[in-house]
Amino acid sequence: FRSGDQGRTWHWLERGLFPGVSAFALDLAPQQVGQALWQWGDAMSMSMRHATVELMAEMGGEQPEAFSVPLYYSPDAGETVEQLALPEELFVDEAYVRSRLPAGAQLASAGYDDIRLYTVPLANDRAVAWVSQRFPYSYPDEPYIRGVVALSSALPVQRQDGRWQVQALRRYEGVFIERLAQAEGRRLAILGESSLMGEAQLVELTASGLDWRTLSALPRPFADLPARNGVASLQVGKRAIVLGMRASHQVPRWLQ
After folding, report:
1. CA–CA–CA angle 173, 180, 38 (5° rounding)
2. Can you tell me the mean pLDDT for 106-122?
3. How far is the C-alpha of 30 from the C-alpha of 147, rounded, in Å?
């Protein structure tokens, strides 16, 4: 059902929301500008996909298609939908990541990589598709993850003559977007901690949707003590930013 008057009246969308795209119906969280909606499809783990490729090769089975995630657009609040044709190079593969590993390092086991997908609508005819990926790595004979290779890709798209056209792809080495929230004309993001970016930061995207300015480092609940810190949520209002943090500190055994 859909309401156009803040819930006072409702009408039934007989064909459903985003008709014909039912695989991710339970995970719909579209970005909206006016009546326009943007929605990513499901993102399969990159390393899990490569593990599937290797298994199918060993068994002599049919190889899956190149890795990609569909991006959908609806001009009428979800009653009709079209899929954007995105270039394969928007998503990096393991070969790309291996070329950026420290000497002697190896990628962690399948399923440990992470991918985040965002759409930043700029106007009815312009948007930026963001893909953030990170791949943990370790060293042989070590059971622990020692670091991550992080990378974000931004693809501007513009609607011309009734069709979406992709523009020049931009890469951001060492950048991983943990969270992105948009409201009241503001677009805020959490850039995760990495070897290139340093500690995690709260940033605000510029009007282009391709650059940002840093607002502050994230709070560290345990100050200078060694701790695991994470972002649980990010919400943006007209006069406030609400950031949910989680952190844990293990007290040294000799102090217990």
Report:
1. 105
2. 80
3. 32
What integer is the mean pLDDT of 144-164? 90
What sign has the CA pseudo-torsion 42, 169, 63, 53? negative
Joined together, the tokens standing for residue 256 give 């217990």
Q: Which has the minimum average pLDDT: 42-46, 188-192, 247-251?
A: 42-46
* pLDDT one-digit tens code per residue, 196-218: 445 788 999 999 999 999 999 88
DSSP states of the chain:
-B-SSTTSS-B--TT-SSTT--TTGGG---EEETTEEEEE-----HHHHHHHHHHHHHHT-PPPPPP---EEEESSTTSS-EEE---GGGS--HHHHHTTSPTT-EEPPTT--EEEEEEEEEETTEEEEEEEEEEEEE-TT--S--EEEEEEEEEEEEEETTEEEE---EEEET--EEEEEEETTEEEEEEPPBTTTBS-EEEEE-TTSS-EEEEEEPP-TTTTS--EEEEEEEEE-SS-EEEEEEEE-PPPGGG-
pLDDT at position 210 is 95
AA letter at 57: A
Least confident piece of the model among 8-12, 40-44, 118-122: 40-44
Q: Are 100 and 107 in contact (CB under 8 A)?
A: no
Q: How many CB atoms lie within 10 A of CB 181?
A: 18
Per the rule left: phi > 0, alpha: psi between -120 and 50, beta: everything else, 184 is: left
